Amino acid sequence: MKITNGKDFWAGLMFMGFGLGFVVVSQDYAMGTAVRMGPAYFPTVLGAMLVVLGAIVFFRAFVSKVHEPIHVFPFRWIPAAVGLILGVIAYYTQATRQSGIAWEIGHMILSGISVVLLFAAFGPRSLWIVLAGVVMFGYLLKPIGLVLATFVLIFVSAAGGHEFKWKEVSFLSVLLAIFSVYAFVKGLGLPMNIWPDFLE
Amino acid sequence: MESLIANLGIGFGVALSLANLLYCLLGVLLGTLIGVLPGIGPVATIAMLLPVTFTLPPVSALIMLAGIYYGAQYGGSTTAILVNLPGESSSVVTCLDGYQMARQGRAGAALGIAALGSFFAGCCATVIIALFAPPLAEVALKFGPAEYFSLMVLGLIAAVVLAHGSVVKAVAMVIFGLLLGLVGTDVNSGVARFNFGISELSDGIGFVSVAMGVFGFAEIIGNLEQKEQREIFTKKVTGLLPTWQDIKDATPSILRGTTLGSALGILPGGGALLASFAAYTLEKKASKNSANFGKGAIQGVAAPESANNAGAQTSFIPLLTLGIPSNPVMALMIGAMMIQGIAPGPQVMTERPQLFWGMIASMWVGNLMLVVLNLPLIGMWIKLLTVPYRVLYPSILLFCCIGVYSISNAPFDVMQTAIFGVVGYVFVKLECEPAPLILGFILGPLMEENLRRAMLLSRGDPVVFFTRPISLTMLVIAAFLLTIVVLPAVRKKREEAFVEA
User: Fold this and answer.
1) Is the Cβ pair A50, B456 closer than 8 Å?
2) What is the predicted ipTM?
3) Is the backbone of residue B327 left (phi > 0), alpha (psi -120 to 50) or beta?
4) Which residues of A touch B447 (CB under 8 A)?
5) Which range is least confidently modeled, B35-44, B264-273, B309-318, B328-337?
6) Per-residue three-class SS string for A119-147
7) Phi and psi for B360 in degrees, rounded to 5?
8) Do residues B250 and B297 lie in contact, with contact meaning Cβ atoms separated by under 8 Å?
9) In chain B, whose CA is at the least distance from the CA of A155?
10) How many CB atoms lie within 10 A of CB B225?
11) Predicted model pTM
C-alpha cells in the first residue's frame, strides 16, 4: 500500500476526525426518538455520514491515479505540540469571577500565545504572522484603543509579506489610523476607544 | 400585469428614495473597489463588507449588499481583462478573450462591451425576477416541512454537482458545513451543543467569521504565498466605447448569453459561475469562425459577461421565494437577512412587500449605476491595480478586523475569524471547495428544524418524504443528479468541461 494522493489522504483524515468528534461529543446530549428528535439525533447521523465519506476519500488516496506529494503544506510539530499543551492549560485555568484582573490578563496572554503557536504549526510564514496580527488587534483594541491597535495590526501583518519597508509601512499606518478613526468611530459611530483607556 | 406594474411602483418608490439611492451607490462603488483587487472575488468582497451594512435598516442593507455584489462582479471582470487574473471562477472565461483583446490594445472596447452586456442582462433579469418570483412564492407557501427538507437536499446536491472538483469531497464539505451550523443552542431543547464550555459559542459560530475567514483571510494568505507578478495594460486603455462594428458583432452573443444565464441562474446550485462557462461554450459552438476564440473575439467577452450578470441576478429568485440559497453569495445574503431579523422564505413577499420589491427595483438601479459609473471611473480602477499588494493587504485586513469586531464588540469574534482563516487555507491546500461548506453552514439549523417537524407530523415515519409528490420529485431529481455525476462517462465529460473553459 502506497499513498499516491497526499491531498486525499489528509482530507480523508480530516473529515473522519471531525465526523468522529461530532459523534462522540453528541453522546453527551439526549438522543430522543425518530418522532421527537433530541439534540443529539441530527448531529450523530451527519457525523456518521462524514466519517463514511472521509473513509472513502482516505482509501481513494491509495488507489488514486493522481499523484500528489504527501507533504501538502508545511507542518511543524514543535509549535503544534507546545500550542496544544498551552491551550489545554488555558482551558482549565479560565478566569472566574473571584480571580483578579491580573489573572484575567495572564490568561488572555496565555491563550493568545497558544492560538498563535497553533497557527504557526501550519502553512507558510505569512499565514501565522498575518493571523497573529489579527488576533492581537482583536484583543488589544479595547485596552489600547483603535489608533495603536491599527499600528500593531499593520506593522505585524506587513511583516508577513515578501518585503517590509519601514517608511512605507509607517506612512500607511498613520494614514489608515486617521481614516478609520474618522470613518468608523466618528462617521459610523462604532463604539470603540480611539486612545488607551487611561488617556481618555 | 397590472399588479406587476403596481408592485414595481412600490419597489421603485423604495429604491429611488434618496437614502437608498445613496446606499446603492455606495454598495456599487465599494463592491467595484474591492472586486477590482486581483484575487478577490464577489464572495470574499461581500464577506468583508457584510458588517458595514449591519447598522442600516433592513431594506437599505440588502440594497447595499446587492449593489456590492454587482460591483464586485463587474470589478472582477475588469481585473480579468486587464491583468489576466480572474477575481473569481466566474470571470475565468472572461480572461480568455478579454485579456487577448487588451494585449491587442482593445481593452477599452472589451471593458465597454462587458459593461453594456451586463447592463442589458441586468435589465432583462430584473423583469424576469419580477415576473416569476410571485407565482413561485405562492407555490412555496404550500410547502410543508417535508417539502422544505427535500428541497434543501436537492439544493445542496445540485450545488455539489455543479461545483468542480471531487464530488465525494464536496458532499463531505456540505455535511461538515451542516455540522458547524449546528454548533450553539438547540432551539427545541435549549441545550448548548458543541460549545466546549465557551460562552461565546452558545449563540453558534459567527456566520461572518466563517465567511470572512474561509473566503477572505484564506485568500490573502494564498496570495501572499505566491510571488506577485503582473502585467498590466494601463497605458493602452483608450476609447472605452466600443465601435459600431463591435456592437453589431456582440449583440447576438449578448442575447444568447442573457437567455442562457437567466435560465441557469434559477437552478439550485446555479448562478454566475455555471452561466459564464456555459455561455462561452455555447458561443464557441454557435460562432462561424470559432478559431478566433481565445485570440480576442469580442463575442467571447460579451456572452459570458452578460450570462454571469443575468445568472447572478436570477439566482435571487430561489432566495427570495423559497428562502434557499443557491450559491455562496446567496448564502451570505440569507445570513445578512437573518441578522437583520428577517426570516427568509415565501412570506417575505407578502409580509414585507417594500423590502421584496424595493430590492428588485434596486437591482435595475444598481446596474444602471454600474454603467454610468464605470465608464468614467475606469481610469481610477486601473490606478488601483497598480498599487502594490504589500500595501493593499494590510489595509484590507484592518477593515475586515474592524468589521468583525464591530458585530458584537468581542475579541473572540476576531480570533474565531483568524481560526477560520487557517481552516480555509487547509481546505484550499487539500482541494476541498469551501463553497458547499458555507451553503451547508447556513442550511444546517433550517434542515434540522424541518426534519424534526416532518418526522413529528408523520409520527416518525420517514416514508413521508417519498409519499408527498413534490417532496418525492425533488428527492428523485437529487438522486438522479448524484448518480449521473458518479457515472464514469459523465464524470470524464464534466472534468473536461471545467478544464476546457
Assistant:
1) no
2) 0.92
3) beta
4) 42
5) B264-273
6) HHCECCHHHHHHHHHHHHHHHHHHHHHHH
7) -65, -45
8) no
9) B394
10) 16
11) 0.85
